[in-house]
Amino acid sequence: MMKRVNKRIGAAIALATMLVMPAWASDLAINQETYKRSLDKIVTTRRDERAALKQQYAESLETALRRVKQTGDLDNTMAVMQEIERFKDAQSLPDELASLADIRDLQRAYMDQAARIETARARDILRLARGYDRALDRLQKRYVQEDQVDRARAVQEERKAVEASLLVLAARERVGGELESSSPAERGAQGARRWSFDGRSLKTFMMTGDGAFVETNGYVTAGSYGAGKDWHGPQGMRSVSLNGDFELRTALNFRTGTREQGRLTVGVILQSGTTYLMNMEDNHAAVQGHHFDFVSRRKGSMWSSGRQRTPGRLKNVPVMMQRRGNVLSFHVDGTRRGRAKGCDMAGISYVFFSIQRYSSYPPLREGSISQIELVPLRKGGS
Q1: What's the angle, vertex CA 64, arms to CA 59 and CA 67, rounded to 5?
Q2: pLDDT of residue 10
Q3: Residue 382 lies in a domain
Q4: 189 and 278 share a domain?
């Protein structure tokens, strides 16, 4: 079944990503309109492909349900039915991959195909931008030769604007993709990956949830949450490749009231499918407070702070997940709060984060995530 799903989705991508380069004119205004129209078509195509991917995932779940019913296995049947209902409401993958192999394989295929769609769109954007820049370069030289300096300068400014645009920057970083080929600014010293949410980072993440994020002053917040009966809101995922020991670091701003229910999540998905995540949440509408969980998909909540009443906002609280060998630990504000041995030692495939609200309850009064860092650790040191 999985091969058939992959072929269907792959064929849709192959047909949709054959970018036809536009014909460029000898006029700046006409070229600007051509570029905008072509860019809009690429973005629209990506949105349609993602919608088709969601539909194919839903259909594959229905196929899995029919097959598992024939085995007479009640637990597996209930698991597939629950995923069908969850996906109908959320229209995105959960933070943790399913334990049932049939569902987990579908979820991995979904993530892989979604990543391919994003990469294909990034390549189309870069091909379009390069073609546009070559056309503008010819036009700029012609204006200089004809002693039309003001027009040449206008063309030069347009070239700079395209080069610095968020879509082009995000496409360039997306195609870089893996740790060893990422940009120096993102990679940082000693192979660390950093996403600083300075107006550029968000565009390099694949959006898999409802609603939308907003980057402001080095923090990412939820601009909207979509709608749902359970936890729902925007989620960003970024493909990475990192083996061995690591630290995942960030800082959180959190403020809640007596009715608000919301949570902030940052985590990693390993190559084995195991998910490790950090949650700060308020899941009690009648109590103004919060608790912090360190969660493993295989073991549930590995550590919880318990409910804590919050007199005011929690401002820029640093949190960290660390893996050394087969030991996983969790740190809040510089203090280790949890530790577990025998953890999964597989490499990291994805970094993700989300900001969510519960059902129709008001969201957090303040909920934001600062720079996320994924730092490889050397044995015997940092």
Answers
A1: 130
A2: 42
A3: no
A4: yes
